[in-house]
Each structure stands twice: as C-alpha cells, then as structure tokens.
Specification:
This protein is mainly beta. It has one domain: 3-layer Sandwich (Rieske Iron-sulfur Protein), CATH 2.102.10.10. Helices cover 0% and strands 54% of the residues. The termini are close together. It comes from Methanolobus sediminis. This is Rieske (2Fe-2S) protein. InterPro entries: Rieske_2Fe-2S (IPR017941), Rieske_2Fe-2S_sf (IPR036922).
Length: 102
Amino acid sequence: MASWMIAATENDVKEGKMKPVEAGDTKLLLIRIDGEIFAIENRCPHMNCPLQGGILVDHSIKCPCHSWSFDLRTGAYVASDKIKVNVYETQLKDGNISVLVR
C-alpha cells in the first residue's frame, strides 16, 4: 500500500541540486529543477550504481558510472523508454517534502 512519507525539508533541496534520502526502506534522490521537486530511485538499473553522483542536464540525470541518462519526470532511459528508474510523486506541505512510497 502506498503512503506519504516526509523525506526532507524544503530548504534541504536547493535549485539545480540533488539530495539523497531514504523514505522507509526506499533510497531516493530528490532533485529541484525550475522550482519543481522530483523524486527518483537512487539506483541505475544498468549496474545498480547510485545516481547521486550524476550530472543534471535540464530534466535528466546522467549516471556517473556509465553515462546512461534518465528523464526525471518519467524515469525513462533517454535511449529506450523500455528501461526505467522508479519515479515517485512529491508534495510540498508546511515546509516539508513528502514522497508517495509504494
């Protein structure tokens, strides 16, 4: 069952930056782009490399291990939408960032 979990405060995630967090047992990466906060799984499906050391370009993140890029909005690998990382819905309330974790 899905539930909302507070993952960070609004001030923890700066514009154009990423913050690794855990929501329960789920390792996530929170990223703020153009004021919007995205939450993606902090793991590349290629070889389980953490995405937190990756490079942000527009609305995508490039894996630091093998340069695979994933769209922050959909989780899709830019070269093939058949490969994805999990993305999570976020909400900002009372200065806290919550993530809908399944």
